Amino acid sequence: MPAHLLVEVETHNQELMTEYRKHTPGLVGQFGGRFTVRGGATETVEGDWQPQRIVFIEFPDMAALKAFYAAPAYQPVLQMRLDAGRSRAVAVEGEACAPSHAFLMVDFAVTDPATLATYFRQVQPLVSAQGGRLVVRSDKTEAIEAGWQPERLTVVGFPDMAALRACYFSDAYQALRNLRLSATRSRAILVEGV
């Protein structure tokens, strides 16, 4: 099962971060990983989640993700990123991202499970109509950096930002969004992929 590394980065030393970015693609590739989001445009649509930069990397499985993160060759490169600013990261299993190039990411805590179940039953046809597909829907995230551990994480991929925005801001989805918000404490962003 594919595994994803979701990293939120706030940069304070741009020169060091630029150096870090030069080294990561080759290292990610050595472990079968690929960037699906690498700092694309981000729009906060729910709550107070306002990341400066989001990175979302897909690996063939959780073992490959953890091998990458623990690799001796990555440790000095990782230290560059840590020294360049603040970051937090989680690992989570899910589905392959392809062919998605835009993502709705929702970090939430459930307050009303029955209402949330109703939302999930109704939302799939609406999302599918815009080419959207579920990439991650999990209550099993693993904190990798800075203790970030969402109670639940959902990532929905879309062909592009136009399709994502058409779905998210549609009247039909806004009604379902309100149903979800009544059953959760949510923070959500729209993110442009690679």
Automatic annotation (TrEMBL):
Residues 3-94, 102-194 form the DUF1330 domain. Pfam families: DUF1330 (PF07045). This is DUF1330 domain-containing protein. PANTHER family: BLR0684 PROTEIN, PTHR41521. It comes from Vineibacter terrae. InterPro entries: Dimeric_a/b-barrel (IPR011008), DUF1330 (IPR010753). Gene3D superfamilies: 3.30.70.100.
